[in-house]
Amino acid sequence: MTESVDFVKLTTDPLDLQEIVDLVKDNGAGAISTFSGTTRNTFNGKTVVQLDYEAYTPMAIKLLSSLIVTARSQWLITKAAIYHRLGTVPVGETSVIVAVSTVHREESFRAVEFLVNELKASVPIWKKEIYSDGSVWKENAESKRCCRS
Amino acid sequence: MSDDNKITITVLYFASACDATGLSSESLTFPLPQMRICELEDKLKARHEKLKNILDICMFAVNKEYCGKDDIVKEGDEVAIIPPVSGG
């Protein structure tokens, strides 16, 4: 039985960085890089009360898993984990964690950056910012958009 | 008994598309053996007035894979309307 080396999860539970670091920890890997995305309290001067995340979960899991496969084709990755929170996330809490272990540090930096950038560009997850006087669905600047032919 | 001259598909709406239609999904039947995504797009615009502007910036996915406007939708397909994403 081979040990699982990639971990992809969408969850309504709070994210625990140490738990995710422990998932990718490996005695053969000298480096673990992590990225934590946290929810901000203001947008264009408006006070954000909370954020609501939703996902097309089966497609998001599939895409996140395939992003790790792509990363593995570019860098020698020991283990990788991508956890994204769904549902209501209070301001200041962590909405996403990406963690990668590699033999040497340079590859873990590159792989984490790649995975975060690709997640923000193409994985079907959405966040709605709730203000005291309304709400808006956000759009990442790097999000894929339809181009009318 | 399947009918080769019509298709029934499931359309999924997320985020702003869900708000605009008031639906997270719907099952639709069309009297065609198959259709292109761009044809489905026109039918959805006609069906949901508030979806018109939103659809112009949305991506489509068929059975959990991003697709192009000329791709084909067939009987039983799950078509997702994907507004610009904002994960992270």
List keywords for this structure.
heterodimer, A: 149 residues, alpha+beta, 5-stranded antiparallel beta sheet, 4-stranded mixed beta sheet, 3 helices, 30% helix, B: 88 residues, Ubiquitin-like (UB roll), 5-stranded mixed beta sheet, 25% helix, globular
Q: Nutshell version of this structure?
A:
The complex is a heterodimer of chains A (149) and B (88). By secondary structure, chain A is α+β, with helices and mostly antiparallel strands.
Q: What can you see in these coordinates?
A:
- The complex is a heterodimer of chains A (149) and B (88).
- Chain A has 3 helices and 9 strands; from the N terminus they run E-H-E-E-E-H-E-E-E-H-E-E.
- With 149 residues, chain A is an alpha+beta fold.
- In chain A, strands 3, 4, 6, 8 and 9 form a 5-stranded antiparallel β-sheet that branches. Chain A has a 4-stranded mixed β-sheet with strand order 1-5-7-2, with helices on both faces.
- The longest helix of chain A is centred in the middle third of the chain and has 18 residues, at 57-74.
- Chain A is elongated, with a radius of gyration of 16 Å.
- Chain B is α+β, with helices and mostly antiparallel strands and 88 residues long.
- Chain B has a single domain, classed as Beta-grasp domain (Ubiquitin-like (UB roll)).
- Chain B is 25% helix and 33% strand.
- The chains are: A alpha+beta (149), B alpha+beta (88).
